[in-house]
Amino acid sequence: MTDSQTDSLPTFKLVVLAGGESAERTISLQSGESVARALTSRGHQVKTIDPSLIDLERYDWTNCDAVFIALHGTYGEDGTIQATLDRLGVPYSGCDASTSKLAFSKSASKERFIQCNVNTPSYVLIHESDNAQRIEQHARTMGYPLVVKPDAQGSSLGVTIVQTPEELPQALTRCFHYDSFGILESAIKGSEWTLSLVNDQVLPLIQIQTAREFFDYEAKYHEDSTEYLFDFDFPTNVIQAITKTGVNACEALGTTGIVRVDMILDRFQQPWVLEINTIPGFTNHSLVPKAAAKAGIDFGELCERALIHCLTKTADKPQN
Length: 320
Prior knowledge:
Blueprint: E1 13-17, H1 25-41, E2 45-49, E3 66-69, H2 80-88, H3 97-104, H4 106-115, E4 123-127, H5 132-142, E5 146-150, E6 160-162, H6 168-178, E7 181-186, E8 190-198, E9 201-202, E10 206-209, H7 217-221, E11 227-229, H8 236-253, E12 258-266, E13 271-277, H9 287-294, H10 299-306, H11 308-316
Parallel strand pairs: 1-2, 1-3
Antiparallel strand pairs: 4-7, 5-6, 5-7, 8-9, 8-10, 8-12, 10-11, 12-13
């Protein structure tokens, strides 16, 4: 059974995991609500569970065919929930535990990108216990402007573009509020892009335009002025290069299911991979649903495609 045959799927008993205790809890609840509504509209029996309120180890999974993970941030995207579901023998959407853990760490994924010749900005891994002078020296060596980011966090939380040495201490404080590890990353000036894949199907590329300094949390979820473009004023070979770079990044990490690659195109028209999101948002502002709609995939079918592998395995099981 292929992705194009989702209309022929029987109905399933599904659980949507949303909420959790990460800094992205609010967005996760919104994603979960949208997903549950969409899957219900496709005829499935859907129950939403918040792992911060219900112990998944004690939950009765006998009446669950598969889980849609709509947990963003820590616990959802870092491989923890995937490892838990693996132990419980419950099929779930998205990448496995090891790939999720790899993608969620910016430093670990960058190392894999470098090994696989995928362009990514240079970086230095830092820790909150590091000597301030050591971090300042790294920043001077890297040069300004630079970007300070938590090593493991999503939705651009704790991210700051630092223009001068005087701005560095505040940026570090903000970064270490979200994670004990962080990275200093070379700031690439250029246009922002995102590429989504659904079970290896490449969705239409999106160029993001925001009036803010970069595509930060506010631009992602609250700014109605943020623009998402599908028609580009760039040569075809440049668009192909951006797409190829995004696909290569996913292959480097071995992702599956629905993923989103965030990139920057510099002034020399060279694409650079910033990160891969293994559980991208499913809100009204989210990028994957926009790209899917452009490709003619409605939201309900998109949600089913996220579960297609475990659903088809269940559908193909012989009935007793």
